[in-house]
């Protein structure tokens, strides 16, 4: 049942992600991003990349004990800069850049500020870890290009568009909600300076 904005915000609980959240995270990720996006092995690896100097930069959101959102963030120096990154265009040295891996909000709870609050919490944790900026790849084919719009509203600046960013993953079992198992979606590489 859809909550009103006031009730949803009043009943929202945000906290650091923990392994007890994994089942709900995988279920929500599959619903939003498609089958094969993550499993427990992958999620455990992603989760570990977010803890640096005993500070966790990944968060979850619950409303009335229902997981309605999560944000996975890799700490600085705990992620690989690959061919989909353009560090020469970043305004910060790469060793001080965290990676915003995934932000997911249940469709019934979008528009209530859940994604923005999760990002805000991740930024504060990343700053404590020593990061000066965060990079992400936003899904251009999200409904209404909402991912890029939301990240831009939070201060994100476009670095570069990367066509075919997730194609290799789709060949390995990821089922894109738009392209099925042959993903041709575009990733917008964006950065937020803290």
Automatic annotation (TrEMBL):
Stored CDD domains: NAT_SF
SUPFAM superfamilies: Acyl-CoA N-acyltransferases (Nat)
Signal peptide positions (record): none
Domain of life (superkingdom): Bacteria
Name of one Pfam family that matches: Acetyltransf_1
InterPro entries, A to Z: Acyl_CoA_acyltransferase (IPR016181), GNAT_dom (IPR000182)
Domain N-acetyltransferase: 12-194
Membrane spanning stretches: none
Protein name per UniProt: N-acetyltransferase domain-containing protein
């Amino acid at each position: 049942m859809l909550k009103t904005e006031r009730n949803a915000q009043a009943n929202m609980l945000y906290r650091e992600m923990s392994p007890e959240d994994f089942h709900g995270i995988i279920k929500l990720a599959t619903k939003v991003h498609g089958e094969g996006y993550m499993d427990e092995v992958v999620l455990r690896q992603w989760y570990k990349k977010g803890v640096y100097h005993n500070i966790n930069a990944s968060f979850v959101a619950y409303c009335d004990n229902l997981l309605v959102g999560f944000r996975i963030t890799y700490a600085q120096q705990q992620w690989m800069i690959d061919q989909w990154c353009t560090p020469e265009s970043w305004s910060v040295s790469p060793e001080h850049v965290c990676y915003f891996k995934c932000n997911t909000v249940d469709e019934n709870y979008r528009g209530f500020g859940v994604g923005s609050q999760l990002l805000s919490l991740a930024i504060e944790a990343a700053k404590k870890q020593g990061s000066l900026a965060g990079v992400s790849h936003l899904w251009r084919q999200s409904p209404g290009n909402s991912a890029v719009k939301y990240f831009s509203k939070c201060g994100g600046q476009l670095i570069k568009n990367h066509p075919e960013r997730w194609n290799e993953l789709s060949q390995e079992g990821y089922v894109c909600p738009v392209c099925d198992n042959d993903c041709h979606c575009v990733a917008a590489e964006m950065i937020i300076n803290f």
